[in-house]
Amino acid sequence: MDEYTQNAILTATPEKLVEMLYEKAIELIAKAIYNVKDAQTRNASVVQAEEIVLYLNGILDMEKGKEISKNLRALYDFIYRQLVDGNVNADSEKLKSAKELLEELLETWKEVEKKAEVRPAMAKSGGFNVSA
Predict the structure, then answer these.
(1) 114 burial type by CB count under 10 A (0-12 exposed, 13-18 middle, 19+ buried)
(2) pTM of the predicted structure, to 2 decimals
(3) Which of 56, 101, 60 is nearest to 79 (CA)?
(4) Which of 57, 63, 108, 128 has the fewest CB atoms found within 10 Å of its own CB?
(5) Boundaries of domain holding 43
(6) Residue 52 domain-assigned (yes or no)
């Protein structure tokens, strides 16, 4: 890992770290799809992506997140199964499915981050009452 990447990780907010994990998993799956016929490269990339998905699943706060966390857990489980099947069977369609779902989650996550950034700024400026 280069120094720039290491500094980016060490200084990132928890929200930004999740975004970076999504981006890395997507990148790894894209590499696996491109190298689907090369078992060694495909496997190395997919296993790393699987580890990211397992980590994201593991950090879900089921108490605070309630229904959202429950739905995300089911989605992460599905993505993980797609990755395993795609890797074992050299099935680029299953890998693409997992990648597309992660891309959608990334876009949703970015939207949530934007809204979270706006709320504190508006609250400080008297834009609205955040406790309402």
Answers:
(1) exposed
(2) 0.84
(3) 101
(4) 63
(5) 14-120
(6) yes
pLDDT of residue 118: 65
- The verdict on residue 127 lying in a domain is no
Distance CA 102, CA 24 (A): 10
Tracing tokens 């990780």 back to the chain, one arrives at 9
Q: Is residue 5 part of a domain?
A: no
- Percent share of the chain, pLDDT over 90: 72
**What CA dihedral angle connects 99, 105, 107 and 113, to 10 degrees?**
-150
Residue 39 maps to a domain: yes
Query: Hey, what long-range contacts does 89-92 have (CB within 8 A, 24 or more apart)?
Result: 90/36, 90/37, 90/39, 90/42, 91/36, 92/33, 92/36
Q: 60 φ, ψ to 5°?
A: -60, 135
The CATH number assigned to the domain holding 38 equals: 1.20.120.340
Domains contained in the chain, number? 1
